[in-house]
Design goal:
Elements (H helix, E strand, L loop, with lengths): L5 E7 L6 E9 L2 E10 L3 H11 L6 H23 L6 E14 L6 E5 L2 H8 L3 E3 L2 H6 L9 H8 L6 E6 L2 E7 L8 E7 L2 H11 L8 H4 L5 H8 L19 H5 L9 H19 L6 E5 L6 H10 L4 E3 L10 H14 L7 H4 L9 E3 L2
Helix pairs in contact: 1-2, 2-3, 6-10, 8-10, 10-11
């Protein structure tokens, strides 16, 4: 496959704040971003997706309709970045929209919707999707999958790095500078999901821009202790989680009977994210590279800088804009699949071995 072949990546995370779409090329020197676009979910569809992800009951017909509707919007996002591109577009890698992720279930399960047949049909380009279920079938968590891309792009023998993605859920990738030491990683817990859900319930805003609402409040130590007592934080890795665990019902069950100022809850949720991330960072870490929406929350970044003994910087310092790392990763995973190469890291997910991920929908 020529290095100049273009790949498109589509990513919508647990925050459901929009679809990140990129067109990229890959070469030895790294990733070149050709086009980027954030495509909004139609408000009504977003609300339906959020309800579905929060354990709201669905009929099979409802789920089928959501799958097709999401597929159409994902195709729209791909068409925007494809418009005017010159060169061979080899494939689209679509993560889809996660509605459920329960690797510890009986049986383990995960569900990402966004019909990839529709994406292939609307764009005329081979589409690779459904990346998580093969790893799950092989005994893995099905997540996180981006660490293989982090290794390819950010690993160096110069320093021990950790890549921190703060989306709805936060996850880390440990990149030891010793080539003989395996890459590891896992979901640390909530990233933005609880903060987003709480401010939406309290004020109608979709996010706490620049952490201003949290900055008005005070951390409540007793509440923070109850939140950090969740069993997930003590589980050994490999592990992964989702917003079907860390959701408003989870928070409400831990709020005390006496009223707490909404801004105090927000401040405590931000501290929960920062503390759970910091607890997961290896003491050998010499640099933390941050990507995802959380990088734009200066209060959260300040707390991480205060809690960690090493520099905390954006992935832009290592050559890739933090807003597009995950979308670029799914373009890379599609490339891996078409090349017959594994896309998972068993040391990260716990799978019994490397696996070629995803299903291919030919043009």
């Amino acid at each position: 496959m020529p290095a100049t072949a273009i790949h498109v990546g589509l990513m919508s995370g647990t925050s459901m704040d929009g679809i990140d779409a990129v067109a990229v090329t890959f070469a030895e020197e790294g990733v070149r971003l050709l086009r980027t676009h954030q495509h909004p979910w139609p408000s009504e569809l977003r609300e339906r997706l959020q309800l579905a992800a929060s354990r709201h009951p669905l009929t099979a017909a409802d789920l089928a309709e959501l799958d097709s509707a999401a597929g159409e919007v994902l195709a729209e996002a791909a068409l925007v970045v494809l418009d005017g591109l010159k060169g061979e577009v080899r494939a689209i890698g679509s993560h889809g929209q996660t509605l459920a992720h329960r690797p510890g279930g009986r049986p383990p399960s995960t569900l990402q919707i966004g019909n990839p047949a529709i994406i292939a049909e609307r764009t005329g380009i081979t589409t690779v999707a459904d990346f998580r279920r093969r790893d799950l079938a092989a005994g893995g968590q099905g997540a996180p999958l981006v660490p293989a891309f982090h290794e390819a792009l950010f690993r160096t023998t110069d320093r021990y790095r950790v890549v921190l993605n703060i989306g709805g859920i936060a996850n880390i990738t440990r990149l030891p500078n010793n080539p003989g030491e395996p890459v590891t990683g896992f979901d640390t817990g909530p990233g933005n999901c609880l903060m987003d859900a709480w401010i939406r319930q309290q004020t109608g805003q979709t996010m706490d821009e620049n952490g201003r609402f949290a900055a008005r409040g005070e951390i409540r130590p007793a509440l923070l202790e109850r939140l950090l007592a969740d069993d997930y934080f003590r589980q050994p890795s490999p592990k992964s989680t989702g917003t079907d665990h860390f959701l408003l019902d989870w928070l409400n069950a831990r709020l005390p009977a006496e009223p707490i100022a909404a801004a105090d809850v927000q401040a405590t949720l931000l501290e929960l994210t920062a503390r759970s991330i910091a607890a997961a960072i290896d003491h050998r870490t010499e640099q933390v590279l941050v990507c995802g929406g959380g990088v734009h929350n200066p209060l959260l970044m300040q707390r991480l800088d205060e809690l960690l003994p090493c520099p905390v910087v954006s992935t832009a310092m290592a050559g890739l804009d933090p807003d597009w790392v995950e979308a670029a990763a799914f373009a890379w995973l599609a490339r891996q699949t078409l090349a017959g190469q594994a896309g998972n890291l068993p040391a990260v997910t716990g799978a019994t071995g490397p696996r070629i991920l995803g299903a291919i929908y030919p043009a």
